[in-house]
Amino acid sequence: MTPITPARALLLLTVGLVCLITASGALIGALFGGVRGALLAAGCAGAAGTLGALFFRRRALRHFAAARREAGIRGYAEGIAHGVLLHVAAYEAAVFPRTGPLGVAAEERAARRTLAYRMAALDEVPRLVREAAADALAVLDAADRAGTEQALAQLATVVRQEYTRP
Fold this sequence. Notes:
By secondary structure, the protein is mainly α. The protein is 84% helix and 0% strand. The protein is built from four helices and no strands.
């Protein structure tokens, strides 16, 4: 079975409406003009309904395409912002490992730091998220545990508020 997409649902709706308009025209024509009136009214109503449906369908499909593009852009930016949060948290785990000060090698800590800074520097990252990430990275570089928790909480809050659905 073919899945119901917005374009397919719109097509089915407009075809149904055109059929309904055509049948209504035929009934009204039959009431006032007999068989010839029914054929004429059905033809006119069907043609008018088809033209209206085509106009409406094109307009709706343009709206669907714009909404799809906007959702893709928003989803991409949201994913990038969550990626920044993830990489900053991974860097925090390397700075303050649960296994003790020797739990993470210096190379791994440097690699996680580099990844966190690169993610935060991407052009697609919104300004508020970038600023909160910069604050968190600065506190992590200073190895301030209390400040790190607060900075990461602030970063998580900014990421969440930036993409809260209205």
